[in-house]
Structure formats: C-alpha cells, structure tokens
Fold this protein.
Amino acid sequence: MRESYTTYVSSLSDYSLGGMLLLGREYIAGAENYRFGINGQERDDEIYGNGNSYTAEFWQYDPRLMRRWNVDPIVKPWEASYAAFSNNPILNIDLKGDNANPVYDTEGTLLGTDDKGLKGEAIFMKKEDFEQGMIHDKAMEKNVGFEGLTDLNAQIKYKANYESLYTRPDYDGIVSIDEGVAWAKSHPNLDDNNNPKDGFKYATSSDALYYDVSKMDFGKLKKDDFQKVGVPELIDLTFKATLAENSRFTTYALGRTYITLVKNDGEGIVEVKNGTWNNYDWHYGGNGARNTALYIERKRTGLNDSHGFPL
C-alpha cells in the first residue's frame, strides 16, 4: 500500500519586529480563519482589527506597541510591568504571556530550568522544591515570586545572573563544538590538581556548560546499550554520533559519561546528572581511538589539561 501526503498552507504572514502584520504581506487560504500568529499567539481580531491584538493565558498583547494590556504576573523591579518579551522579541518567546523558565532559589542562586529551557523570566522557589527539568506548571505552583528572595543581596545576585543568561552558549539549548571550546578558554584553571575525576574545586554553578540539557541529541544510543534500568552506567558516546549537527555537538561534549536508563518502555528515557564523573575536558583516557581524537583536538584548538569545567 502506498501513502502520499500533500502539504496544505493555511496561512503565510510577514511581521514587523514586535509581531505587527506587514501591509499586504499576509496570505490566508480561502475562507479559512487561521487563529494564530507571531510566536504562536492566538489572534484577537475583534479588538483592533486584523492582527493587531493577541491573547494568551496571562496577557492581552498589542504588537504595534510591543506592550501588554495587563500587568505582568511576574514582578521584575528593573522592567516596566507592561513590557513584553523582556523587551527583546527576537531572542525571547512567550506563549502564555508569563514567560517564565530559569529557576532560582531564595538566595538568588540559579538552580537550573524547568522543562521549557533558559529563555524567559525567572521562577523563584525553595531549593528543596526544585527538580531539574520539572514540568513548568509544577514549577509555577512552587513559585514564591521575586518578593520571596531573602534580602537585597539575593536580589542583586539574581539580577546579575539573569541578565547574563543570554550570553551563555546553551541559551538556545544547543552548544556547538566551537562554543564549547571558547567556553573552555574563557574558564581555565578550575581544577586545583589537574585531575577532573575528583571534580573542579574552583568551579561554581555559573561555570557549568549546560543548564538546559533537554535538547541534547544522543545519536545512536539505544536501550540495548544499557544493562539495567535505574542504574548509572559508563557509556562511551564517542562513536554514537549521527550526521545530525546537534548529535555531533552532544557526543563531543559528553564523550564518556555516566548515563542512567530511567524508563525502558517506548523509546526509552535517559538521565544525565552533573557530578565529578561528568566533566567537559580534554584529558587523555580511555581507548586508543579516543586518545588519538583528543590529540588531534588539542593540537587544533590549543587546549590542554588546564581547560575543563563541569557540564
């Protein structure tokens, strides 16, 4: 039996920076009333006409002004309550109008992310309530808000970290090989004894390469590569890469690392936890093929034993 599929274009639109439709640059098939526009927002054409108003769970948005009608439910003392997309609609998306993802504890320290990634406004919660990659709705239930920060020092610490997130190589969830090498060169000498097996003594959480690992591509990694479920196993990803660009990036970054097969049903779910066993470095070790590849990379990039950091 042969199956064939036909692509059907419902809507085609060009937008200005904030999402306002460009005059004469929209196509809608037939009498179809396609409801969505920029950033996946639902259009509310009854307010100001075609494409001039959007609605979501937490806002009503005017793309001509790049401003929301209502006050942002997440308080940001350095930003107007009616600002949208953190005043940067090119870098940021905000499907619900609350735009919250990176998670901080009440001391202002970045804990990690929910299942949405780094982009967006902050969520604040008690450290013991946090779980990396937790469901966004669950994270919002635990959110104590900006006012939950303990003192002024915590607010300053949080603000400094948050405003620098966009400079991180994993801001879009994907770290290229060149970005990883550049990160290493800008974060040298984190290891006190040149032995990454016992961790990086001088490293802080901000030195870690990945905050968000949800977009990592493990290539040809299969369930059969694991002996047990729920037990960390040392897996060599060096030759698991596929032709996909992000697969090459992921396997290059992780090399040999401990990975846990969390679930064995369906396609399988794996877990990679940070720890002294999970570092990004260019130390020799393992099989001959790996050491040969490391030798070539060290010559190509100028990296050595002084470079490395926690993932």
The CA atoms of residues 219 and 243 lie 9 Å apart. The chain is about 20% helix and 20% strand.
